[in-house]
């Protein structure tokens, strides 16, 4: 099978909001992932940092590492300042058998700040765009040294969020060096059309996040000028099959374009309100219904 299904630990313990799921252990998290019939995971802050130790926990549960998030600051720091941490991250993921590295530019990002996510969205200057695209290509070359690929994560509250911004990033980077992560939830949250993005950039998409959106919560986030993290706490994100997104036409495009790689459920919620195991099972059942996987 060329498509593998994973789930992110952020539903059990939120790295950006450590108080969400602080009571949930690493072992509980990965055991429930396996019980919900997923075969992959991304990396959370409770995961062991030693590859051999991490493998000793994942292997008995039939889990592999799909990827892990890496923040870059190419618009606000020099390229050279970003490199050491990237190489360390790359080498860890390589040791875990991952093929892609999730990257997001966090220069000027407001996703972790107490600012309204819609109204205060940052934008890049021409000079910053140039720093970003040239820097990403260089990081892509470093990834290729390990036969890996960087996949860019468009994200709410950052300078690469909208269709226009995604299009610009893709147009000004080498397809051999920079690929794209396709995140259904962030596109809908931003007001973009996931089908348009997939049709336009399917050849560049090397990693996929499936998350759903609660339409009523999204409206409140916008109208109340909520921050990204307050939106998360309010329940704007949920798992596939529990929100407003129709995954059938999205899956049709994924299937028709012979996508190969991971589809990772990533739906950050408050685990005290949304039991991670039950929602993981809900997501897995919906994906099975829609895709047959």
Automatic annotation (TrEMBL):
Residue ranges annotated for the Xylose isomerase-like TIM barrel domain, each copy included: 41-288
Keyword Lyase: yes
Uppermost EC category: lyase
Gene Ontology molecular function: manganese ion binding; myo-inosose-2 dehydratase activity
Pathway per the UniProt entry: Polyol metabolism; myo-inositol degradation into acetyl-CoA; acetyl-CoA from myo-inositol: step 2/7
UniProt keyword Chaperone, yes or no: no
Catalytic activity field: scyllo-inosose = 3D-3,5/4-trihydroxycyclohexane-1,2-dione + H2O
Keywords assigned by UniProt, alphabetized: Cobalt, Lyase, Manganese
A Pfam family per the record: AP_endonuc_2
GO terms under biological process: inositol catabolic process
Cofactor(s) the protein requires to work: Co(2+); Mn(2+); glutathione
EC number: 4.2.1.44
Family: Belongs to the IolE/MocC family.
Protein name: Inosose dehydratase
Organism, scientific name: Vagococcus intermedius
Gene (UniProt): iolE
């Amino acid at each position: 099978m060329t498509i593998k299904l994973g789930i992110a630990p952020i539903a059990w313990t939120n790295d950006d909001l450590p108080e969400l799921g602080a009571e949930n252990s690493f072992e509980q998290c990965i055991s429930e992932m396996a019980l919900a019939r997923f075969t992959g995971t991304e990396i959370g802050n409770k995961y062991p940092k030693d590859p051999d130790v991490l493998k000793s926990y994942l292997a008995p549960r039939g889990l592999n590492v799909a990827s892990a998030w890496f923040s870059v600051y190419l618009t606000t720091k020099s390229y050279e300042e970003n490199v050491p941490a990237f190489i360390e991250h790359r080498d860890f993921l390589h040791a875990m058998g991952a093929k892609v590295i999730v990257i997001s530019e966090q220069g000027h990002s407001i996703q972790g700040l107490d600012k309204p996510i819609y109204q205060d969205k940052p934008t890049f200057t021409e000079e910053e765009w140039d720093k970003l695209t040239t820097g990403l290509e260089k990081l892509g070359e470093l990834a290729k040294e390990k036969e890996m690929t960087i996949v860019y994560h468009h994200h709410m509250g950052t300078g690469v969020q909208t269709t226009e911004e995604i299009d610009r990033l893709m147009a000004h980077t080498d397809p051999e060096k920079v690929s794209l992560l396709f995140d259904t939830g962030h596109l809908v949250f931003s007001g973009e059309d996931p089908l348009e993005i997939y049709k336009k950039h399917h050849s560049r998409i090397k990693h996929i996040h499936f998350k759903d959106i609660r339409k009523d919560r999204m409206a409140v986030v916008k109208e109340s000028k909520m921050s990204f993290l307050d939106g998360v706490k309010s329940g704007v994100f949920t798992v596939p099959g529990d929100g407003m997104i129709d995954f059938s036409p999205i899956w049709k495009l994924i299937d028709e374009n012979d996508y190969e790689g991971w589809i990772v459920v990533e739906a950050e919620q408050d685990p005290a309100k949304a039991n991670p195991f039950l929602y993981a099972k809900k997501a897995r059942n919906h994906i099975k219904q829609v895709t047959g996987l």
